[in-house]
Amino acid sequence: MHHNDEPVFKRSKWGTNRYYYNPRNPVGLALIVITLIFVGTMMILMANRAGPFSAPPAPEPWNPPAYEQPWPPVAPSSPPGVGAP
């Protein structure tokens, strides 16, 4: 059986201009297997919501900054240059 004569892609016979992988060519068969493994892995990841399909992390609750000003406010001292000589 000569695989060199078989093309990797064959034209569909359903009246469309589409091509499909040729399983009689080793490269076409490898492409079929790789495609099935990839699609199966993506379906499992989607079903389990894992990998790129995982939910974004929950945002942390808002925590306001600590209040650092004293209460009651301290009376300011006299500005420089004003006051006793």
Task: Give a brief description.
With 85 residues, the protein is α+β, with helices and mostly antiparallel strands. It has one helix and two strands, in the order ββα. The model has no long low-confidence stretch (mean pLDDT 83).
User: Taking strands numbered 1, 2, ... along the chain, how are they ordered across the largest sheet?
Assistant: 1-2
User: pLDDT under 50 segments (min length 5)?
Assistant: none
Extended strand count = 2
Principal-axis shape equals rod-shaped
Mean pLDDT: 83
Structure explained in plain terms:
It is a single chain. This protein has one helix at 26-48, and strands at 9-11, 19-21. It has 85 residues and is an alpha+beta fold. The chain has a two-stranded antiparallel ribbon. A hairpin with a 7-residue loop joins strand 1 (9-11) and strand 2. The model has no long low-confidence stretch (mean pLDDT 83).
Features:
27% helix; 2 strands; 7% strand; rod-shaped; two-stranded antiparallel sheet; 85 residues; single chain
Chain-wise SSE layout:
Elements: E1 9-11, E2 19-21, H1 26-48
Antiparallel strand pairs: 1-2
